[in-house]
Write a structure and sequence with these properties.
Largest sheet: 4 strands, mixed
CATH topology of the largest domain: Glutathione S-transferase Yfyf (Class Pi), Chain A, domain 2
Pfam families: GST_C_2, GST_N_2
Keywords: Transferase
Helix content: 40-55%
Domain GST N-terminal: 2-84
Mean pLDDT: 96
Number of helices: 7
Strand order of the largest sheet: 2-1-3-4
Strand content: 5-15%
Domain GST C-terminal: 86-198
Radius of gyration: 16 Å
InterPro entries: Glutathione-S-Trfase_C-like, Glutathione-S-Trfase_C_sf, Glutathione_S-Trfase, Glutathione_S-Trfase_N, Thioredoxin-like_sf
Shape: globular
Order of helices and strands: EHEHEEHHHHH
CATH architecture of the largest domain: Up-down Bundle
Structural class: alpha+beta
Length: 198
């Protein structure tokens, strides 16, 4: 059986989620750098793996391919402590995973992409919604260490990936102490985080 291969761009928080999940669960992986800005996700070889031409994409140990960051981490996190055993807690984790993709990622990650990779000012309306998303997180974390229950779950993995990089887009986590402390707490579980993944 081959090692799990992660095709990703190291600048992408969505790709970081997959690496974080592997590291937190002790799953071996091979990183295949795929520069989306240079068309490396649009080659014939890559499109054979993922016709949508998006990263992250993984080639599983059995040869199967899987795309979409939250689908990947749910698959990799199955039967690990990152997925709550209790049905309701698991549903709350799913709730945050859906919220991350609908109400967080488009308004925190996209402004970062616009500023860092496209070299332009982020859309003001996206920034406004990003501020609201970060405020919502700060409020939720005021009296808890993690998003669901008393231990880290895939909800924390999904949300920390771009939240920790929010400053790149111009968001100020310093005004959100609960988010700031939570980010340190979650990243503290990954002391050997690979260099250059920012």
């Amino acid at each position: 059986m081959t090692t799990l291969a992660i095709y990703g761009d190291r600048r992408s928080g969505n790709c970081h989620k997959v690496v974080m999940t592997c590291r937190l669960t002790g799953r071996p992986y091979e990183w295949v750098e795929t520069d989306i800005m240079n068309g490396e996700s649009r080659t014939a070889a890559f499109l054979a793996l993922n016709p949508a031409g998006q990263v992250p994409t993984v080639r599983l140990e059995n040869g199967g391919a899987l795309a979409q960051s939250n689908a990947i981490i749910l698959h990799l996190g199955e039967n690990t402590p990152l997925v709550p055993g209790d049905a309701f807690a698991r549903a709350k984790m799913y709730e945050w995973l859906f919220w991350e993709q609908y109400s967080h990622e488009p308004y925190v990650a996209t402004p970062r992409f616009q500023k860092l990779l496209l070299g332009r000012m982020p859309d003001p309306w996206r920034m406004d919604r990003g501020e609201a998303a970060l405020d919502h997180m700060n409020s939720h974390l005021r009296d808890r260490d993690f998003f669901v229950g008393d231990r880290p779950s895939l909800a924390d993995v999904a949300l920390v990936a771009y939240t920790r990089l929010a400053g790149d887009a111009g968001f100020d986590l310093g005004t959100r102490p609960s988010v700031q402390e939570w980010t340190k707490r979650v990243m503290g579980l990954l002391p050997d985080w690979p260099e250059g993944f920012a």
